[in-house]
């Protein structure tokens, strides 16, 4: 009877402890959810503020366009105004939680503001010249030429920045590995037993690359420079040309690293020597590795 009472007491203590633990975790989860909701709300407010800044900048461009008699500057302002509209539209469809892209769009806004400041300075200078020095056409042309060169330089700098961002979004293959397999799918070092070539690889993490369905193409180059390919129709586009591939593999990419393997079924007489494996994704060469097959 005493043991039974002890069991009841111990059971009660355990139930109390478990109840307290559950309450603790529920309260903790609610706190985390509340903090997350506050962060998301702040990000939404920041996005709304950025949208308003884009709208205000577009209005500024419109106000200046009405006061300019110079057709070239009008076209330049209209081009920048169109860019502001495009960026604003992209911002509207961008999720507030996409902090990286929001930051990029904020930087774009700062760049456009700098360009606009250049244009405003040019506008003020031209208006002053037109009022005070109407007869000095040579001086006006020189200043306008200098302004145009500045705009062209800014355009080149923006193109360079775009190219840098594009290069950063190209995927990359790392952790390449090669194995020769026999007819049982086991690794072998015997040249005569090679039935399959296995290529292990990792698509590296890249949060700037666009996510989605991807296709990896593998080109295997023999020691004599020929490409291993099963069919003449097995081609893909690279640098505006259709080139042959040895094997392909579809995969889904979400920004995180992806490790996998791709295979080549040997159907020809292999050559001993140094081979090369080239990997391509999204029309870019993303990895090139050498490997040896010896007798």
In short:
This protein has 295 residues and is of the alpha+beta class.
Total beta-strand segments: 10
> Which structural class should the secondary elements be placed in?
alpha+beta
Question: Sheet with the most strands?
Answer: 5 strands, antiparallel
The helical percent reads: 40-55%
Residue stretches low in confidence (pLDDT < 50, at least 5 long) are 160-166
Binned strand content: 15-25%
Mean pLDDT: 77
Q: What secondary-structure arrangement, pairings included, does this model have?
A:
Elements: H1 2-65, H2 71-93, H3 99-132, H4 137-168, E1 173-181, E2 196-203, E3 212-221, E4 227-228, E5 235-238, E6 241-244, E7 247-253, E8 258-265, E9 273-281, E10 284-293
Antiparallel strand pairs: 1-2, 2-8, 3-4, 3-7, 3-9, 5-6, 9-10
Helix pairs in contact: 1-2, 1-3, 2-3, 3-4
């Amino acid at each position: 009877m005493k043991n039974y009472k002890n069991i009841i007491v111990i059971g009660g203590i355990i139930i109390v402890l478990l109840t307290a633990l559950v309450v603790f975790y529920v309260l903790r989860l609610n706190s985390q959810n509340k903090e997350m909701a506050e962060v998301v709300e702040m990000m939404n407010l920041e996005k709304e503020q950025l949208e308003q800044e884009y709208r205000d900048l577009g209005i500024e461009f419109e106000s200046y366009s009405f006061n300019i008699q110079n057709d070239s500057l009008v076209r330049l302002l209209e081009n920048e105004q169109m860019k502001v509209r495009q960026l604003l539209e992209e911002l509207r469809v961008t999720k507030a939680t996409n902090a990286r892209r929001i930051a990029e769009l904020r930087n774009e806004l700062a760049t456009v503001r700098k360009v606009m400041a250049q244009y405003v300075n040019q506008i003020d200078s031209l208006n002053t010249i037109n009022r005070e020095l109407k007869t000095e056409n040579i001086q006006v042309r020189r200043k306008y030429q200098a302004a145009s060169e500045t705009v062209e330089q800014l355009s080149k700098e923006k193109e360079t920045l775009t190219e840098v961002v594009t290069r950063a979004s190209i995927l990359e293959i790392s952790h390449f590995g090669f194995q020769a397999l026999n007819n049982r799918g086991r690794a072998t070092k015997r040249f005569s037993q090679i039935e399959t070539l296995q290529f292990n690889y990792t698509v590296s993490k890249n949060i700037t690359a666009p996510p989605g369905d991807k296709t990896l193409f593998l080109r295997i180059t023999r020691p004599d420079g020929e490409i291993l390919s099963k069919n003449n129709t097995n081609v893909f586009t690279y640098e505006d040309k259709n080139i042959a591939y040895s094997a392909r593999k579809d995969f889904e990419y979400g920004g995180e690293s992806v490790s996998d393997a791709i295979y080549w079924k040997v159907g020809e007489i292999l050559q001993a020597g140094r081979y090369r494996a080239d990997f391509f994704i999204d029309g870019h060469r993303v990895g090139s590795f050498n490997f040896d097959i010896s007798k």
